[in-house]
Amino acid sequence: MFKKSMWYSILVIACAGFIVLASGFYQAIIVTTMVGPQPSRETPMTQTTGDSTLSSKNPNSVQLLILGDSVAKGTGDEKSKGFSGYLPDYFKNNTSKEIVLDNAGIDGLESMGLLEQLQSKRLDKLISDSDIILVSIGGNDIRSILSLNTLAKEDEFRVRLDSYQSSLRLIFKELRNANPNSMIIFLGLYNPYEKATGLEDARLLTTWNYNTQQLVEEDGKAIFIPTHDLLKFNVGKYIAQDGLHPNSAGYQALSYRISKSVETILTGL
Amino acid sequence: MFNLIENEVLKMISKKRLMFVLAILVVLISIFAYGQNHTAERTKAQLAQRMGITATDDWRRLADQQLIDMKNRLDSPYRDEKDKSSLRVRIEQLQYNLDNNINPLEQSAAKFTTKFMEQSIFLFLPLLIIMLAADMVSGESSSGTIKLLLVRNVPRWRILLSKYLTLMILEIIVLFFAFVLSVIISGLFFGLGGWLAPVATGFKLVAGKLDTSAVLNVPQWRYTLMVYSLAYFVAVVVGSISFMISILVKSTAASIGIIMSTLVAGNFISYFLSDWKITRYMFMVNLRLTDYLSGSFQPIEGMTMLFSITVLLGWAVASILVSFVYFIKQDILV
Amino acid sequence: MPQNAVLELTNLRKTIKGKEIVKGVNLTLYPSQIYGFLGPNGAGKTTTIRMIVGLIKPTEGSVRICGYSVAHDFVKALSNVGCIIESPDMYKYLTGMENLLQFAAMNKTISQQRIKDVVEMVGLQHRVNDKVSTYSLGMRQRLGIAQAIIAKPKLLILDEPTNGLDPAGITEFRNLIRKLAYEEGMTVFVSSHLLLEIQQMCDIVSIIKQGSVIKTATVQEIIQHDDKVEWQINDPEKAIALLMDHWQIKATQLKTNTISAEIGQHPLDKLNEFFIREGLGLTYCTAKQNTLEDLFLGLTEGDQIV
User: Fold this and answer.
1) Which 18-37 residues of chain B touch chain A by CB within 8 A?
2) Distance from CA of A185 to the nearest CA of B (A)
3) Could you report the per-residue pLDDT of A235-250, keeping only the tens digit for each?
4) What is the spatial distance between Cα C214 and Cα C300, in angstroms, rounded to a whole number?
5) Residue environment code for B242-261, b if the CB has 16+ CB neighbours within 10 A, otherwise e
């Protein structure tokens, strides 16, 4: 009888299903309520201090510190080198000293985040030992406003720029407190979007870079390195698969430019 | 008891209501699958356009690069442990994709089946359950057949218990078919695979913030199982409440109306009155249990998986108690 | 309590929403009899029957079926009852057979053979595999009886059973009830507001009015006791006086030369002889058998009966 067999299949499905679902339910509760494995490694705090004691100031070396966002860190380089990989190679041409490098870049960092990182004083030892500090920041501050409509974009841009500028002032203050003498190299912003090159966007980017440069120039021992000009017509060549970060060739080109700008300073160190 | 449950199930089969619910499932899953397919293709097209290359073909290079980046990040001494555990989980996932040549942008039946239930758990699934549950007692009241049942030499609580157990069985059947139909229909669009891919879970709330320190990867099939188990729990809770209302109200249409409007109101409440503390004790705002698995919930102080399950369980138990007490005591006047 | 009573109601009362619907019903039913439960609509028949089968809990008083209290021994008490309450509501989306199987599944003593027998007994064998939604009211009524008697109950309760049946159906139904009572030994309790139905079907009748049973007697008793005779006589005044003097019969004058009297056990032929002897000029005599209706109207003092 059709209905009878249907009832038996329902019964079998229900019994099996109940057992399976009960075990799933148990797992779900365990997974969401269990206590996570406590980190057995040392905390980043002690690691940092350990690092910085290791890299204590050595008169026979040039200390390079890279700070800021994912570009500083080297994200996007398919050879995973980034500035940390290429800058020392180029710097070698101008100095005989050993080049010691630290990279404290963090993906997605905004100017406020960098300021917090500096204010935490964790990096102070590294900073004070550094001869050259490369800073890349601001890209994440401005990136999210690109999707807004023109009107809102203008307003939001002003707000972002204001807060970015005040952060940047404080960032310089923190850096100089820790080390008044090091050379600070500040990277400008570029436009990674081949398609999004409206006049309006270009104007915002220029305004941003201009204001940044003004601030950087206020510091006597800092240099603003533009990147926009280098990448504008080379997006396909220098931008990585993710459509945002430079690729290996991009990092090399930027590193080359940076090394040229500080040639004389390097030889003087 | 076994005979009574068999009776109830046979009635349900004959009433075609179960078939109706399954038909709705087929239609909705088909639409959802088609929509997902469409979205996936559009995303691909957008990516390809933005990057000037066909990202879908080149995904391995992109993934390789992301993987290297994340490994670097993991080595960075300037990150705290919380970030690292979620990073490790992401790396595992990407590595799996690369090892098994799975484009992370591609849908799979496994992903779809899970996503479908995650999207259904707070409104669509309850609605299906209500359609079944609201009729179980009020249907007999309005047709007068309840009289025939209650003048047998079977105590009232057994009659009601058999109906409740039947409801629990049918809830499994609904989930079973939701699962099977999702797999089959989405399999037609996306292929049947994807059951071993790692999925991140284990998110927790600590002091009102999402804590990712305990995040780990589980195979997709286990994740799917957990999602469907939670969905079953939700189904039982909603079923119990509808069951109670079906006993109290006696008219099928009225009881479906009451519980549906409660559910919809619950969605409003969780949206507009999320600051109001008392709302978190309502069952409607606690139905999104799978969000605790996927970590996609709004971090609200005091709302955790255990909290939600306790609240829901409280509602279910209270509903069952009210149902039985009222049903045993009531005079049948129809 | 009486030894072999099938149903015993003791001071049964029910108050619904402050209104007393049933006001202390006492009733005892014995095996293999057909009982009528007669009363106008709204007299409390259905409420009483619902209390008997446990659908409604009495406010006061007790119901015992075959010695088991419905309140305390529900399962044992209800094992002895089969019933149709008001209309025979069956599952319309099931077939007649599936309906019966549903009820059979709730009682393990029912065999497949019994189901077959019952279907034949109510004459549904040709339509039993059709959906109930296609049945006529008469067929639903038969199916209702089938489900009521399927477990061979000692007490069969039928609430307004002939509603919607055509005359042929009613006759058939009556025969079936008789068969069940006298051949299968069931006690049948039939409630109705139709006097004729009760008169034709029942052995014993209880009359309920406004929540109280006002008379219980055998149908034969009630009808015989109250035989009425009418005479057409030339001199009614003298006849009334003579009847009172010689026979202690109280007669009343109906028309100019017609008198009427309840003669009770007195033989009518002797009375007629007496009138002729006395030279009263008897021209016509009719013995009118009293119906339940007269009695009912008298007892309920002209309450509306449908």
Assistant:
1) none
2) 21
3) 888 888 777 889 888 9
4) 9
5) bbbbbbbbbebebbbebbbe
Q: Domain C7-223: state its class.
A: alpha beta
Residues of chain C with CATH 3.30.70: 227-289
User: Which fold, C227-289?
Assistant: Alpha-Beta Plaits (3.30.70)
> Mapping DSSP to helix (H, G, I), strand (E, B) and coil, where does residue A130 land?
coil
What's the pLDDT tens digit per position in C35-78? 888 887 778 888 888 898 888 888 888 888 888 888 888 888 88
Residues 6+ apart with CB under 8 A from A210: none
Query: Are the Cβ atoms of C78 and B143 closer than 8 angstroms?
Result: no
ipTM of the complex: 0.79
The length of chain A in residues reads: 269
Q: Which of A21, A77, A194 sits opposite B228 (nearest CB)?
A: A21
Chain C residues near residue B7 by CB distance under 8 angstroms: 102, 105-106
pTM: 0.72
CB atoms within 10 A of CB C6: 25
Tell me if C122 sits within 8 A of C142, measured CB to CB: yes
CA nearest to C157 within chain B:
B151
C188: its two tokens: 């049948």
At position C274, the amino acid (one-letter code) is F
| Residue A227 tokens, joined | 């990147």
Distance in angstroms (rounded) separating the CA atoms of residues C166 and C119: 20
Residues of A in contact with B292 (CB under 8 A): 32
The answer to whether B151 contacts C79, with C-beta atoms less than 8 Å apart, is no
Put simply, the chain A residues between 165 and 184 with a CB less than 8 A from any chain B CB are none
> Is the CB of B214 less than 8 angstroms away from the CB of A23?
no
User: Residues with Cβ < 8 Å from B262, sequence gap 6 or more?
Assistant: B284
Chain B residue numbers touching C87 (CB-CB < 8 A): 144
CB B133 within 8 A of CB B244: no
Q: Name every residue whose Cβ is closer than 8 Å to that of residue C271 and which is 6 or more positions away in sequence.
A: C229, C243, C247, C263
The one-letter amino acid code at A124 reads D
Amino acid at B249: V
Task: Measure the CA–CA gap between B33 and A21, rounded to whole angstroms.
Answer: 24
What does DSSP say about strands C187-192 and C34-38: parallel, antiparallel, or unpaired?
parallel
Scan for tokens 């609580």, then name that residue: B157
Judged by DSSP in three states, B268 sits in helix
Please report residues of B whose CB lies closer than 8 A to that of A11. 9, 169
Main-chain dihedrals φ then ψ at residue A154, nearest 5 degrees = -60, -50
- For CATH 3.40.50.300, the residue range(s) in chain C are 7-223
Given B16, B145, B333, which is nearest C90 (Cβ)? B145
Report helix, strand or coil for C279.
Answer: coil
Measured CA to CA, the distance from residue A172 to residue A223 in angstroms comes to 12
DSSP structure string for C213-232: EEEEEEHHHHHHHT-EEEEE
d(CA B131, CA B167): 11
Per-residue pLDDT tens digits for A19-75: 999 999 998 888 877 654 444 333 333 333 334 344 455 677 888 899 888 888 888
Task: Give chains near A: 3+ CB pairs under 8 A.
Answer: B
Q: Do A21 and B72 touch (CB under 8 A)?
A: no
Phi, psi dihedral angles at C59 (to 5 degrees):
-70, -35
Residue B204 DSSP SS3: strand
